[in-house]
Amino acid sequence: MTGSMRALLWCAGLALAAAVVTYPVYANGYYLALGISVLYFTILATAWAMFSGPTRYISLATVAFFGLGAYTAAVLGETMPWPVVLLAAAGVGALTAAITGLSTLRLSGIYFVIFSFGLAELIRQLVIWYEVNIHKSVGRYLFSGVTQDILYWQLLGLTALVFLVGWLLGRSRYGLALRAIGADETAASHSGIDATRVKLGVFILSATFMAVTGAVMAPRWTYIDPAIAFNPTISFQVVIMALLGGAGSLFGPVLGVIPLVLLFEVLTATLPNHFSIVLGLIFVLIVMALPNGVIGLFGAGRWRVPLGRPAAASARTMVAPLLAVDGVGKSFGGLRAVDDVSFKVSPGEIIGVIGPNGSGKTTLLNTLSGALKPSSGTIRFGGALLNGLRAHQIARLGLARTFQLVRVMPDLTVAENVAAARLFSTSDGAGATASELLDLVGLGTMHETPAGDLTYIDQKRLELARALALQPRLVLLDEWLAGLNPSELETGIALIARLRDRGLTIIMVEHVMDAIRALCSHCIVMSAGSVIARGTPDEVLADPKVVAAYLGGEDA
Ligand SMILES: Nc1ncnc2c1ncn2[C@@H]1O[C@H](COP(=O)(O)OP(=O)(O)OP(=O)(O)O)[C@@H](O)[C@H]1O
Q1: Where located (predicted)?
Q2: Which of 341, 353, 359, 524 to mutate to test the pocket of ligand 1 (most atoms within 8 A of CB)?
Q3: Do the interacting molecules here have an ipTM over 0.90?
């Protein structure tokens, strides 16, 4: 772009900003009211997309927080200074989001949608009950000195703030963490991301904006009752606007707000009795025709986090043994999938866990990595007791894993997948960069490729790079070599051997016996949840009990 073009763009931007700021001075009452609607829906849709865009938790609770803000203003507006009223509304919104979020953000998919819709209705009913039985009147009057002009400028300030916060969030590690959670919450947790805390924090932030918007809007109505403040249509309109514009980017929702505010304006005037039907139709059309919103048509970037140089690994003090599993069991109802398993792993060792299908190998790995809580026994890692810790806490201690059914975050690029495992790293020494790790696993030329576009084998390589990005002391590989052709297998075995030579400790569940023989110093063999043999690969594979357990299995 030439210098004069840039100057022209700056001038146009400044002229637009001046026109927006001075809008109440030259707009008549009708257009000012439209401007107010555009602004308040912009804030609501941007705040909604801040949480729901990256996580894909579709929330219909917008009006719950908006209504609480409006009601807080109605209750306090005539007795308290206005800034105090806005702070109180923010506090009520944040507190309600914290309480409800803590109990429900473990829900996902349709359960969260239903909950969020129910929350808005529950709060509406509680407010009606309070008003009728305690306050003895259905609604409240709010007379304040807030004119339409002041209302507009308050909303404009709040719009600027929501964009600033959204921009900062997108640039922060929480932005990438949210997207990682949205792409694959399990993989994110095993990469050290505390999914519950990240989701809760951003849910509260988003709800706070919604509540303050409700408070700012309250003086517009003068008379506030639950039907106005908690009108469920608002929640649906916000979802439709954010989806039309594109919920995956910061400025996407506003592209949906402007045309839809105008359209809804026309519809309420021309089809007041069929408004909801038209709303539903628009929703269906948007989801079918523009799954990534208007902004998706331009391939506009998502909120990206610069990779930078990763945090470095600490010189960890090794305690022998690195892992001590003692009497671990795991039951599913009446099925004892893992039964009284004990073994130790010393630093730098590769231990093989083998056994026929269904013998409990993956379940054992799941108890070690925090995906499942053991029903009995203890697991100590580097001296720390892992029982009771959650997946992200175990990952942060330096215990990484790959999955039997490969789990990458498909919408994130290869580089972002690796970066996700570094977001909450507490390491402080020098470690391999993301780039070095990708070179190591053979993905050095694919940094910007979306992980979902990789072949199955490359996804496995990426999973390993992501596990290594945690700078782990122990890596659990669950059939990482499965499905490789002979030359890929050779490369895979050589790669694992290199990791061992660098001092990494590995537990590998594997059916490929050539790999077990080539890599493992020691094996445990499981059958029906119990350990039936242990020793070197040659010893266990010659054991008649093992041969019998495999029933002449092809590899053994
Ligand atoms: N979440 C679960 N709920 C109920 N049963 C389960 C669950 N996970 C595993 N199981 C059962 O526990 C047993 C052990 O399964 P697991 O997947 O650990 O075996 P595996 O040795 O890893 O098998 P494979 O080699 O086929 O992967 C099986 O009978 C399985 O059906």
Answers
A1: Cell membrane
A2: 359
A3: yes
